[in-house]
Structure formats: C-alpha cells, structure tokens
Amino acid sequence: MSKLLNKPVTVHEVAGRPARLCVGKTDHRLTSLLDHWRETGCWWEGEAEKEFYEVEAGGRYVLYREGTQWTLHTGED
Amino acid sequence: MGFTHLHVHSDYSFLDGASNLDALLTQCARLEMPALAITDHDNLCLAVRFLKAAKAANLKPILGAEVTLTGGHHLTLLAQNRPGYANLCQLLSQAHLANERGKPQTGKPALATHHEGLLALSGCWRGEVPSLILRREFARAKEVAEWYRDTLGRENYFLELQHTYRPGDQRLNRYLSQLAEAIRVGIVATNNVHYATKPEFKAQDVLTCIRTLTKLAEPHAERKINGELYLKSPAEMAELFAQYPQALTNTLVIADRCERYELRGEGYLPEYPLPVGETAAGYLHKLTYLGAKARYGKVTEPLRQRLDYELSVIDQLGFSNYFLVVWDVAHFARRTKIRYAGRGSAADSAVAYCLYLTLVDAFTRNLRFERFINPARAHALPDIDLDFDARYRDNVTDYVVEKYGKQHVATVCTFNCYHARSAIRDVGKALNFPLAEIDRFAKLMPWIEADEIRAALPKYPELRDSKIPERKFHLLLDLCQAVAEHPRHLGTHLGGIVISRLPLSHLSPLQTAAKGVTVIQFDKDDVEELRLIKLDLLCLRMLSAVEDSVKSINSGQQSAVSGQPSDKLHSTICTLQSPNPPFSFDAIPLTDRPTYDLLNTGETVGIFQLESPAQRALQSRLKADNIEDVVASVALIRPGPIQGNMVDPFLARRKGAEPISYLHPELESILAKTYGVVLFQEQVIEIAIKIAGFTPGEADDLRRVMTHHRSHRQMQEIGENFIRKARARGVSKEVADTVFSYIQSYAGYGFCEAHAAAFGDTAYKTAYLLRHHPAHFYAALLSNQPMGFYSPHTLVNEARLHGLAIHPPEVNRSEKAFTVEQRSAISAQPSADSTPRLSHNLQSAICNLQSSWAIRVGLQQVRGMSESVLDKILAAREDRPFTSLPDFVARTRISRDLVENLLLCGAFDALDPNRKKLLWELADVQPEKDKGEARLDLETAPQAWLPPLEDFDEVQRFCYEWDLLGFSPHKHPMEFCRQRMKLLGVQTNADLKQTPSGKQVRAAGVLIRPHRPPTRSGRTVVFFSLEDETGLLDVTVFENIYQKFGKLIFSESALLIDGRVTDREGSRSVTAQKISRFPNPTVANLKSYLRPPGCGQPPPQ
Asked: Do the beta carbons of residue B1036 and residue B961 sit within 8 Å?
C-alpha cells in the first residue's frame, strides 16, 4: 500500500529523467517509468512547478523534482 | 517535422482562453507555422477578424469550434470549406437557440444532418471517446467511435491525442492509438492550446476561477494542473509524440485539406419588397420627390440637381434597397406615431431629409453629401442611425423581424471586455479579497484599462490607502494587467440589427442574449467588414420625455400619463383649456427670443446636450441668438475642440474681440459660419476641395485618414500631398502650409456638422419646452429616468427654482408617472414652501406665471415599485379612492415592504399625516412581510388601542423620503444646516454667483458628478458641482489641490470648499483651494442612510 512520504531522496538522472534512486540505504534501478506529469501548485503563493514521475524501482514510487531537488512523494510500505 | 495546431482557444473562449488573436498569430509566426485553427467553445466570434489577420500575416486560417454535445462531451470540429462553415454555423445556432441560454448543446441527430464539409477530432479528456476510455468502458468507446466514423466519414474523423503532462496522458494515448488502428481511422496530435506562451497560464487559471466562481486557493475540476497548454513549437510536439509520427503528419494533412474561403458575399444584401412594376431606384426616386414637395412646396432647379445627384450616387453604388429598407422603418414609426429622429452623417443627405429620415435640411444648410456617402469608397455601406422614443424602439425592431423573417434579422453583438473596474472586481474575488474593500476600490477607479491601473495609482489620490496587503495588492495588479481587454462575455449592441436576404445562420451562429433577443456572434466591426446591412435603431429617452411633454401640454388636462399611446388619461383635477392649435414639437419656431435668453443664463439643466457643467458655462459665454450658435455649441464641448484650443478663439471671434481673417478667399465661404475656426468634418472636406482641388471622394478620404490616429510620418505624407495639390492650383506654399496646419490640428477629433445640426435642433426645442412649459417638461424628464446628466434630486431642485411646487406621491392622486397639477387646490397637507427659491438670473415674470404649477411625484418613483404593482394600485383605485391604510392593503394586496415604502415616503399623508402611527397600524393590518394578505378582522380599527404616537421628526421624514424616492419633495438637504453654514461663513450658491470675481469664498453642498475630462495640458483637473437649495455651483480643482484632497472628492456625498470666485464672461465658478468633509451628518450620510431603529417592528401587545 502506498503512503505519503514527502522526504528528500537522491536520484540519479539520465537525460533529465530519473534512472536510479536511493530509498533507505538501498540503491534501486528504475525498471519502469509508469507516468510523468507536471503541476504548477500554488503559483500565487510563489510555489514553483513540480515534475512528477511514477516509477517502478524495487517498488512503486511517486517522486517529484522541484528545481534540482528531488522528493519522494509517495511509496509502498 | 512540421506541425499545425488544430485545437486552439483564443480569449473568445470566454473566461477560458487567455491569449488574444495577435498574441497567437505572433507566436505562430515566431514558430514558423504556416497554418492555425481557432476552435473556441461553441462560437465563431473571432472568425471575421481571424480571416483578415491571418491574410495579413500570410498564415492559413482554419475556422472551427469545440462544440459541447448533449451530455456535456466535447468535440472539435473544423470547417474544411465554405459549406462546412455554414453547417458549423447551423449546428451552433441550433445548439444555442434550442437550449437554455449559456448552455448550448449539439445533438447527434443535428450533427448527422449538418456534417458535410466538417472534419471532427475526438476532443480533449472531455471528448466522448476519451472519457469512456478513462472510465475503462472500452467496448462502449469503440461503439461511439464507430458511430462518428460512419456518420462523418472515415476520412473525416480523427482520434485526438494530447500530451499535456497530465497523469494518465500517455496511457490514454496508447488506448486511443490502438482504437484508431482497430477501427481504421486516423490519429492527430493537438495540445488543447489555451494561451500563446507558458507564463500566461496564470491568467488562464484566474479566468477559470472567475468562470467557476472559485477562489484561487480552492481546487476545482476545471482548473488545469499545469501550464502546458501553450502554443508549442513543432520540435516540442515532435518530442512529445515521438511514438506517434503519424499523429504529427496528419496535422499537416488536415491543414492542407482545409480550403481558404471568404465569408463576404453579395447574397446577404436585403431586398425591399417593391410594388409591382417598380425598380428599387425608381421607387426611391418617386418617394424622394414626394417628400421634397411636402418639405419644400416647390422643387427648385438647384434642389432638383442636388437630389438627382444624390439619387444617382445611391443608385450607382447599389444602395437604393438600403434606403428603401430604412425609409420603410421610419414610415412605420410615423404611421404608428412613434417619435423618432435621424442622427449622424445621414443628415448630410437631402434625400434622407426628403424621405423624413432626418430633420436636418441638408440642402438649405449646404451640407456635403460626400461626408455621408463617399463615391470613392464604394465598398463602405452607408450607416443611418435612428433614435426612437425609448419605450417603443422594440416595437420597431419587432416590425423589422416580422417583415423580413426571424432567420434574416438579428441583433449585432458586443464583446464586453475587461477594463479596470471589472478586472478589479473579478480578480479581487478570485484572490479572496474582502468584498467591501474590492467594491470600494473598484468604484474609485477612473474609467481606464485594466493594464493602466498601476500607472494610475500615483496619479489619483483617491486610489491610495487600499487597505489590501501589499504583496496581494501587487498580485492583484499583475493579474488585472494579464486579463486586460480580454472579452468577458458577449452582450447586445444598443440598437444595431442586421438584415440579410440569405438566412443569417449560414454566416454566423445565432444565440439568445441576456435581453432575450437573437444575436449574431459578430460585432459592428465584423458586420462592417462583411458588408452586411446594419440599421441602428436606438433608444433615446429624451424623445420619450418630449413625447410625454407634448401629450401633457395638449391633453387639456393637468395630468399626463407616460405609457402606451393608447392609454387613456386619468384626470383628477380641474381642466385647463387645451392649446389651440395643438402644440407641435416639430413646429417650434427656431427664432424664439425667450428661449435664447434662457440658454444664455446657463440655467440649462434638463436641456438635451446642453446641461453638463461645461455646456452651462459655454452657454453663458456664448450668448446664442440663433440656431447656428446652438449647433456650434453642441460640437464645441468635446474633448477635441477643448484640447485643440478651439473654444476660446471661436467665442472671441464671435464677439468681435479677436479679428477674423482668411488666408485665402475660398476659406471665407467655408469657415464664416464658425468664425474662421475649423469645427466640422464637412469643413475639412470643403477646404480640401476648394484649396487643393481634391475630388469630393478624395477629400472625404483625407478627412477619414486624418481623424484616425496616424504616425508623424503618415501625417507628413498627407501634408505633402495636400500642399503639392494646392500649389498646383496656384496657392502659395506659405498659405498652403498654414491652411494644412489648421486641418492638421483638427485631426483626431471633429464633429460631423449634420450630426451637430440634428442634435442642435433637438437641444433648442427642449430649451423651448423648458422656457415655456417647464412643469410639463420636468415632469416628463422625471418620468423617463434614468436619463441625462443629473439625478432626479437635481431636476427636482431645478424645478423648484423655476417656481414649481413638488407634490409628494399620494395613493389617491398620483399616477404611475410624474404629472402636472395646479398648485393651489390639491393637497390636504400644508403645501410646500410657496415662495419659489429663484435663481437670480431667471426673469421674475416666468416665476410668477409658473408659481401656480406643481409636479406630482409618480408612484413609479417609490423604491421597489414594479409595473404590475402599479397596475394593481391604479386598478383598485378606479372603483373609488382609498379611504385608509387598511382599505388600501385589503384592496391592492401588495407586499408589506412596498406598503411600508409608500407610507414612509408620504404617500398616505393625505389620509393620515402621522407616518409612525401608520407604520404601527400596518404591522397590525399586515403582520406578514412580503405577503399581500391583510388581517381578516379589518372591522376592528387597530388605531383604537394605539397610544398617541409622536410622528417622525422632520429630519427622519426627510431621510425616508430621500432613501425611498431619491429626493425629498419638501426640502433640499442643505436647508437643514443653513443656519450652521452661515456660522461657518458658507454662502448660498445663488449668493456666490453674485460675488465679485477673485473674492475668497466658502461654499458647500451635495456633490454632483465629479469627473476628470481630458485637458489641453494633460494634467488632471477635476470638475464637479455643488448643489444647495438655491441651485448649482460649479467647482474646478486643479492638480495640486486634487493631489491633496482628491480622496474626498470621489468618496463623499457632500463637501465644504474654500476657494476663489472666477468669472469667465458671465460664467461663475469657484476654483477650490481647500476641500473638507461636510460637517452635517444628515447631508454627509445621504448615500449610506440607515433607517432609525424601531421602524417596522410589530406593535407592543
């Protein structure tokens, strides 16, 4: 079951897309890019655009990038 | 790989698209795209401008629409060719006309009937097929897609793929692609474009919030989650659809299949149904000469030459039918006794005069026909505007619809766009600002564009102190700028209707406007571009007031009813002798000395076109003594002549204070009537003809070019052409240069003499009414509000100053409208102050004559009254007068709120002058609010058990009257504080007008119409009037004082002014040096009056 995490995560990119991510102490290679979308969020409060990825990498995760910072948005227990 | 955007929303997808046409085309050009489709929601409003602009930009335009289907799904339709466009128009017309206004729906049967020439794309996520796939109803999605394929044709239906970075986009595209392969239809890539560039997504988001009544901080299903719906480049689209190259290629295939076509066509010009054996030109000739004989008696040779010339031009340009159509409309009005008057440049035509379209004798005034119809501009249709008595204009429109058919007549639309005030209100709500603060700020805003607000803030002191947090305030201004000039909604043109021989639904979708009329989706500029025949059938309330005045004067009674021509008159008072012969407005002599004397006093409140402060000041200085002076004054008080410094030279030369000289002998005959000053557009034409040898057509072209904004280089070119031609006729360079400078300084403004003459005629004649029949005229003006420059309370005050009494509304004596009565024999209550408060400038003879007259306030003036309620009251009263409040309640059964309003404004005073007592009585007689039910036991007099009640005091009574009527029939608010004003050194306005120029004075009064017109210097000058019981005083506030005290001017209802008296040739005003709040709360709080506590409460048990 997926739960809200919202914590920073280290992601290795290839051509601007996530290729590997470190969850806990484990480094996972992406096996599948399930979906990719963008959200502008609360732009009127100064919030920046976020780029979301739903991936399979040893589990199903949703992560987003805001600028250069990656955040793990939701993941499986 | 190339790409064409085929699903694009402009800002004419109201409150959804965020970019205008220019922005979209500019971006297209930047991206080197050769074609573009515009597919706004259920409309083709941009079609005409899009075709024109695309041609200029060398871009292929594709017209289309995103239609809403029954059930709410979307479908993108593109008009492949002209028949396809006509089918699209018919689909949208049916969608709008067959459904609730604002909720068009296209049914599938209609699509099956009208699909020829249309290409269909399956739409965005709200498309029927995509939405079924998203619900995982794959079988149903296939079924639906096959229906479209089979109905529209395999080659005409495409499944639409979009990749706008929404969750699920890619999955959906996979399914759509597979489905397309399965049913063998094409796929096409689009980006559901809503704006030209990415940063504009903020404006689009705000517009969506406005449309859905959502705050920015609130989610809503229609809000887009990102800013990806912009006009992406071919490279960006190629990257997004790398897996579907065919989807990209098909955009080019579709663009190629769509043809270029025009919307214009001759088939739209209407044909007047001619008598047997007649041609349009022949019949027009016949009617013109019949009219000429009636107008002139004898048709002289010069008149014949003029008429034949005009008729030949009309015939050559193919306008005979148009003239017959307009003649027929005017003839209907004359037959049915609906008062009307032609305006505008049509009054330059002698034929129009003979056809009784206008009241201006163009032949005798020697007006230039070319100003109206320019033979050199054969493509431009003539424009004849007719003003009608406002009450019956719709009767005229109905006649036109009945004569030519519903399919062939429609009203022109308007596009109501965001300006500063509307942007602040809508964006402010979306940003969740306090409503009261937004309302206050919006009301203070001058009439500027939404993107000028920021620049206006330091300029207008009343805009400072917004009480809105600064960060949010900046966001508000940024977003107002972003939505500036975007169309907010489609409205109805005031009077423009198009008449077409072919059904209009082949040319434009038709829809129902808020006013209930059928409109086309094109505005007046589009209509002109398409060469459609447009008639302007306008409402003019002054004509209603004139009509009522004439009826009242001729009635032979002292009541006049404002209503249908067939209404019978109700008379309750003594009869006066009818005028013999009957009074005729049209037969008013133009040489009445007393009328000019009145004009010259500047006491011209109520007179058509001549009542504004600037006009009143001008009349005092001008001292008109003939109709030409009045015509000139109509043209002089306009931004152009004021900014061009024409007013003072005109006045000085007229008085002989400045010499008039003519650089060239030919100029004398042209400019003599305006004392050497270029005042009229026709004079520019004459000068070009006589000095530079232009043909009349070329001269009108010059006039047109010069009256539109031109660059310095363009004006230079125009000048060089003029001077070259003048010199070729032997005019010296010096003279030619100077003459051109006269007309160059005229450029950018200018009034048509014919229009000024038409308005001047009505202005003079209403002045005649005011001078000789003030009671009837003021009663008529008050009955036909809102109209004119001033509120009813100013008209009432002016009526009192003319020696007229104002009788309050009374349930047994008032009609719906204001009526005229003998002053002495009417009210049971003490009459109003019997000494007229006269302006010192009025002749006492007038006052003595008029002091026996009174105006009875009509019941329609009472707040909350509706036509049906008024009918009930008058119908009940027809049997017998009302004898008491309970009797009234029982017999009329109107709501308690309205009864309260009536009694609190004094309508029951004649039955019982104690209004507080009546209020208590009402609570017993009619306990339930908003119900017309009276108590059953009316036999028991409720007042029997009431203790003696002291009535409201004078101030309270006044406040109720002001609140419920907009004025008090008995007193001016300033009278309450006159003693206090004296102690403060404030003089009455009448006294101030006698004070020598230069003297330091103090003035006070109710604030009337503060405004900031454009000035010659470009600096801000504010003008307003102060009103007290002795009349109006005009005040000027220059920029330095405005910056200090401006906040008060636009927020208070009364002011105290310290300043200096100025006199300009008899026109007195005060130049303000200090402005203060008004010290008396009754007057200061007029705008925000609240009822005293205890009103409307049930009586104690």
From this structure: no
- Closest listed residue to residue B191, CA positions, set B230, B249, B226: B230
Smallest Cβ–Cβ distance between A40 and the set B168, B169, B226 belongs to B226
Maximum Cα–Cα distance across chain B: 100
pLDDT of residue B1100: 24
Question: What SS3 class is residue B195?
Answer: strand
Tens digits of per-residue pLDDT, B347-390?
999 999 999 999 999 999 888 898 889 887 776 788 889 999 99
Q: Which residue of B has its CA nearest to A54?
A: B167
Q: How far is A26 from chain B (nearest CA, A)?
A: 27
pTM for the full predicted model: 0.85
Q: Which residues of B touch A39 (CB under 8 A)?
A: 225-226
Strand order in the sheet with B118-121: B35-41, B60-68, B74-79, B118-121, B157-162, B186-190
Closest by Cα among B145, B156, B136 to B73: B145
- pLDDT of residue B446 exceeding 70, the answer is yes
CA distance B92 to B94: 5
Q: What is the ipTM of this complex?
A: 0.94
Does residue B247 sit in helix, strand or coil?
Answer: helix
What is the share, in percent, of chain B residues with pLDDT greater than 90?
A: 70
* Residue B760, helix vs strand vs coil: helix
Percent of chain B with pLDDT over 70: 89
pLDDT at residue B1090, rounded to an integer: 30
CB-nearest to A37 from B166, B205, B475 is B166
The arithmetic mean of pLDDT across residues B847-858, rounded, is 74
Contact in structure between B519 and B510 (CB atoms under 8 Å): yes
Which residue of A39, A42, A44 is in closest CB contact with B226?
A39
The answer to whether residues B1072 and B1001 touch, using CB atoms and an 8 Å cutoff, is: no
Q: pLDDT: is B577 or B1081 the higher one?
A: B1081
